[in-house]
Write a structure and sequence with these properties.
By secondary structure, the protein is α/β, with parallel strands linked by helices. The protein contains 10 helices and 11 strands.
Length: about 300
């Protein structure tokens, strides 16, 4: 409890000596200066009841400081609310436009293999390699609504959700995450999408790499999948590796593309009760799956002609 006395705030501990009903309690704790912002912040954020807000606003702190702490607590990037949505008017325009016009105009050939490995239902994490910004359009072409009947959601790096590009991403099912310091709100939203049976795209390498080999995978994908499976064991989450290869790493116009979808990994088979070890095992197997796709692609060339999908 906090007591105001003689121009100071005191923490009242359980060690209070009272001689009689008329005597004043003897405060044992050290005083806190009235105008100490740090002290007030600690008290408020720890939920310790102090003096009435009206008195505090009038006598103990500036009005703007009171407003910041009591009325409008700061919202940082790590605790801000994260959400994603699919615009009912933008999605039916962008994806068909991309599939029918943009992709066949820009690329010379697009070959897609392994669509039979895509689960027909249930929560799915698509885990593609990341070689170009074109990946965000090619993955929906290979495994989007016209193939599975479900729209894709994207977890993307925070620096990509800016400007005009960010405006589109936020309305096409994307949401940001800080790959260096992942916020709990982004992870929670990813789990919520999986619990709802959505298809979530996460690039496990984290960033775009032009080199044709598999780069070390971030552990976040495995941890998120295991957490979601643990919270809802009957969900039966699958992780599907996807490999994208461009005939030219710089992806100029008329580049050829080869996309291969690998066999899915069942997340529940990795849950043993040892969280860290489970995540390492799942990450290692996903790396191995992507490496097999990469080895197979290294000896192939994208020769199949582009065929426009019939349904969107």
């Amino acid at each position: 409890m906090v007591v105001f006395q003689s121009g100071h705030l005191f923490h009242r501990s359980s060690s209070i000596e009272t001689a009689s009903e008329d005597s004043q309690p003897r405060i044992i704790d050290e005083p806190i200066p009235l105008h100490s912002d740090d002290a007030w912040s600690d008290l408020v954020r720890q939920g310790i009841p102090a003096i009435a807000p009206r008195f505090a606003r009038r006598f103990l702190m500036p009005r703007n400081r009171f407003s910041q702490i009591f009325l409008h607590p700061p919202r940082t990037a790590r605790n801000a609310t994260v959400s994603s949505r699919l615009s009912p008017w933008l999605v039916p325009i962008v994806y068909p436009l991309g599939h029918r016009i943009v992709l066949p105009t820009y690329f010379s050939h697009i070959e897609v293999l392994g669509r039979e490995h895509l689960p027909a239902s249930g929560p799915v994490i698509l885990a593609p390699t990341h070689r170009s910004r074109w990946d965000a359009i090619l993955v929906p072409f290979a495994a989007g609504k016209h193939v599975t009947g479900r729209h894709l959601r994207f977890m993307v790096t925070a620096d990509e959700v800016t400007g005009v590009q960010g405006w589109f991403i936020k309305r096409l099912g994307g949401f940001p995450i800080d790959t260096k310091r992942p916020g709990i709100a982004s992870l929670r939203h990813g789990i919520e999408l999986l619990e709802a049976g959505e298809m979530l795209v996460i690039f496990p390498e984290g960033n775009i790499f032009r080199e044709p080999h598999i780069h070390p995978l971030k552990p976040g994908l495995a941890r998120l999948a295991l957490q979601a499976e643990t919270l809802k064991p009957e969900s039966n989450i699958h992780i599907v590796p996807i490999h994208l290869q461009y005939s030219d790493p710089q992806v100029p116009c008329r580049t050829a593309v080869r996309i291969e979808i690998g066999q899915p990994l069942s997340v529940k088979s990795y849950i043993t009760g040892h969280t860290k070890q489970d995540a390492r095992s799942l990450t290692a197997d996903l790396t191995q799956s992507l490496q097999k796709l990469n080895d197979r692609a290294s000896g192939c060339t994208a020769e199949a002609s582009y065929t426009a999908p019939q349904h969107f």
